[in-house]
Amino acid sequence: MDLPLVVGVDGSEPSLRATDWASDEAVLREVPLHVVYACLWERYEGASVARDLGKPSAQVMPQKVVAAAAQRAQARHPELKVTSDVVFEEPEYALVRESRNASALVVGTRGRTGLAEALLGSVSLTVAAHAHCPVIVLRGSHDNQATPPVHGRVVVGVGEDAEASSAVRFAYEEARRRGVPLEAVRAWCCPAHETTDHPLLADAPARLHEQHAEETLADALRDAPPDLELHRRAVEGHARRVLVDASHGADLLIVGAKRRTGHLGLQLGRVAHAALHHSACPVAVVPQPV
After folding, report:
1. In the chain, helix, strand, coil percent, each to 5?
2. 3 state DSSP class of 223
3. Residue 134: is the preceding peptide bond cis (ω within 30°)?
4. Which phi and psi angles does 104 have, rounded to 5°?
5. What angle do the packed helices 114-130 and 91-98 form, to 10 degrees?
6. Contact at 8 Å (CB) between 183 and 231?
7. Which of 95, 158, 111 is nearest to 286 (CA)?
8. Going residue by residue through the chain (290 aa), what tens digit of pLDDT does each one get?
């Protein structure tokens, strides 16, 4: 049985946009959509949501929040199978658990205003750092649609250990589903201590680093599907800046995140962390076991 695509909602406008995007993605994947609202309603959430929405708390029960999101997805794609659930638990724990039985997990960048917004932003970061499946965090002004493509391009960042990269394989499928080209980007830098002022050798160290980046791209992409339009770019600069720059012309930016068994901290890495905070388009964080 196909694993569902899971979307986390909380009644906020960003989560409604995430619902739209997730329903598009579920249709592309031909899998069901599962809408989840995880909250500590009775202790913290109820009064805050009611105040933000300007409604009596009795009219903003969690079941109504999740039902509204599910109905929105169903109205957008009547043929899509949609299920929903309310989980009375901290969102980060509930969503990471949901990720064990999901093809992918979609979340918004932030929730409601004020303190709740900051907390829900941290929830998205925590889920991206610990989920067992790819997590798509909706960033950017066109984050309410997966189709039709706005820019017509998917971008994947290629790391050093690219031969067995889950992120690259995920990127192949995302580009093929959308029918758009895939741009694989590998950043490279030439350390200052390797440079020289000799006019005949000035470009030699940089060229070696660029050549290594090109070889890494070739290794990472040697199993690319033959029907996929593929573009390779070796770009000078720090990977964080290079990928954020590339996100301005993309519909989806894909990065990998290593998962070390038994490690309790945020398992993202600097590149994925920067992408989640600064990307101009939705970001997919794909776990890579090590």
Report:
1. 45, 20, 35
2. coil
3. no
4. -165, 160
5. 30
6. yes
7. 158
8. 689 999 999 888 888 889 999 999 999 999 999 999 998 755 445 555 555 555 545 445 788 889 999 999 999 999 999 999 999 888 889 999 999 999 999 998 764 443 344 433 678 888 999 999 999 998 766 667 887 888 999 999 998 775 558 999 999 999 999 999 999 999 998 775 455 454 544 456 778 888 999 999 999 999 999 999 999 999 999 999 999 999 999 999 999 988 766 555 556 888 998 999 889 999 999 998 77
- Helices then strands (H, E): number in the chain? 9, 10
- Give dist(CA 13, CA 20) in Å, integer: 11
Task: Tell me the residue type at 6.
Answer: V
- Residue 112 and residue 120 in contact, taking contact as beta carbons nearer than 8 Å: yes
What is the C-alpha to C-alpha distance for residues 127 and 197, in angstroms, rounded to an integer?
Answer: 48
- Domains within the chain, CATH numbers bracketed: 5-138 (3.40.50.620), 154-289 (3.40.50.620)
Q: Distance between terminal CA atoms of the chain?
A: 27
CA distance 51 to 237: 46
Max CA pair span of the chain: 77
Show contacts of 112-115: CB within 8 Å, 24+ apart: 112/10, 112/11, 112/12, 112/48, 112/49, 112/52, 113/52
Model pTM? Answer: 0.86
Residue with tokens 């990720």: 99
